[in-house]
Write a structure and sequence with these properties.
Blueprint: E1 5-6, H1 20-34, H2 41-58, H3 62-86, E2 97-101, E3 104-107, H4 108-132, H5 137-147, H6 152-162, H7 164-181, H8 190-221, E4 234-235, H9 240-262
Parallel strand pairs: 1-4
Antiparallel strand pairs: 2-3
Helix pairs in contact: 1-4, 1-9, 2-4, 2-9, 3-4, 5-6, 7-8
Length: 273
C-alpha cells in the first residue's frame, strides 16, 4: 500500500511553502552572473532585491534578518576598506590618488574594485540566505530525491547523518554534566579547554559509533536500499507556485540587468575580458 502525504508546508511564509529545488533554481543563474560582474551597481541591486524577497515574502523579522546578515556586511565592508590601500589599478596601471596617509595611498581604482568585490560577496551571501533561512534540511533532501531523482539511498542517508548533530550536542552536555559532578573545574583557560577536548573526545567518539551502528541496524531492519524505488511519507512536488516564483524571479532579475545595461552601469563581465 502506498502511503503518500503532501509536505506539511502550509505554515510559515510564501518561501517556506515552495519546493526547495525551485528556490535553488531561481537563484543559481543570478549567482552565476554575480561571479562575473565587475561593477558595484549590479551586486548592490541584487542585495536589495534578495533582502526584500526574503523579508517580505517569508515574513522574517527584520531584526532577525539584520542580526544574521551583520557578519556578512562586516566582511563586505572589510574589502571596501582594505582594497583602496593595496590595489593600484587594472592591468598594472596606476590610478588617481584620492587620499595620502604617509606611505599609504588610497587610489580611485582600489576603491572601485573594493566596492565591487565587497558588494559581490554580500550579494552572493544575501541570495544564499534567501535559500538557507527559508528551507529545512530534511525538506531539501526530500526534494532532491523526489524532484531531481537523486538516489534515495544517498538522500535519506544524508538525512540520518544530519540528525546526528543535535544528538551530538546533547551528548556534549551530558559529558560536561558528568565532569561537573566529578568535580572537574569548568574554567575557560586555554589549557583547560584543551583538556576538555581530550577528555570529551573518547566518550563522544564511542557514543557516535554506537548511534551509527544502531541507525544502520534500524535501516537494515526496514529493508532500506533493497528496492530500486520507494514510497514517501511526505511528497515534494513542483506546483504552480514554484513555477511562478522561478519565472517571476528570473523576469525581475533580467529586467534589472537590462536596466543597468541601458544606463551603462553594467560593467564588463570577467569572462569577456
Amino acid at each position: 500500500m502506498r502511503v503518500e502525504l503532501p509536505d506539511q508546508g502550509d505554515k510559515g511564509g510564501v518561501l517556506q511553502r515552495l519546493n526547495p529545488v525551485s528556490k535553488l533554481l531561481a537563484i543559481t543563474p543570478v549567482m552565476g552572473l554575480l561571479m562575473l560582474v565587475t561593477d558595484p551597481y549590479t551586486p548592490l541591486a541584487f542585495v536589495v532585491i534578495g533582502a526584500l524577497v526574503t523579508v517580505v515574502l517569508d515574513g522574517i523579522s527584520l531584526v532577525r534578518y539584520l542580526r544574521v546578515a551583520a557578519p556578512l556586511v562586516a566582511l563586505a565592508a572589510s574589502f571596501v576598506f582594505i582594497y583602496p590601500f593595496v590595489v593600484s589599478g587594472p592591468s598594472g596601471t596606476t590610478s588617481e590618488i584620492l587620499v595620502s596617509l604617509g606611505p599609504l595611498r588610497v587610489r580611485e581604482a582600489g576603491l572601485w574594485v573594493g566596492a565591487a568585490t565587497g558588494l559581490r560577496i554580500l550579494a552572493l551571501s544575501v541570495l544564499s540566505l534567501l535559500f538557507v533561512l527559508t528551507t529545512e534540511t530534511e525538506s531539501f533532501l526530500r526534494a532532491l530525491v523526489q524532484t531531481l531523482s537523486v538516489p534515495y539511498k544517498i538522500g535519506y542517508s544524508a538525512m540520518a547523518a544530519f540528525r546526528f548533530a543535535p544528538m551530538l550536542q546533547s551528548d556534549i552536555e551530558r559529558v560536561r554534566a558528568a565532569h561537573t559532578v566529578r568535580g572537574v573545574p569548568d574554567n575557560n583557560g586555554l589549557r583547560d579547554r584543551l583538556y576538555r577536548v581530550r577528555s570529551y573526545a573518547i566518550p563522544l567518539f564511542v557514543n557516535t559509533i554506537r548511534r551509527a551502528e544502531r541507525t544502520a541496524l534500524a535501516m537494515d531492519a526496514r529493508a532500506f536500499g533493497v528496492f530500486d524505488d520507494r514510497t514517501h511519507y511526505h511528497t515534494q512536488s513542483v506546483g504552480w507556485r514554484d513555477v511562478g516564483f522561478v519565472i517571476l524571479f528570473w523576469t525581475v532579475s533580467a529586467a534589472l540587468v537590462g536596466t543597468l545595461w541601458q544606463l551603462d552601469a553594467l560593467g564588463t563581465l570577467t569572462i569577456l575580458r
